[in-house]
Amino acid sequence: xxxxxxxxxxxxxxxEYLKTEYRDGEIIFHVKTKESKLQCSNCGSTRVRKKGxxxxxxxxxxxxxxxxxxxxxxxxxxxxxxxxxRQEKLRFADKKKDIPEVLRG
Length: 105
Description:
single chain; mainly beta
């Protein structure tokens, strides 16, 4: 699998592929946000410093009969412009649900 497949199949533009895991009948794609796409979720600045991660899983549409999970380590970022420390904003994630907006029917 490649980052290209993430874009064409799942609509993920800012993430890159790390690995695939097959566990308990599920397909788990491990992805991370590209370094060049990290920006402050408050002011939009790209002048940020990493301050930790929070692992998150997003359930997507299945491939065949296999459930598919997108696993991403969401970055905590300190903005060097506005001084805020916040989690990165994931373009594909709805704030209220763990299902990528792009993948909902």
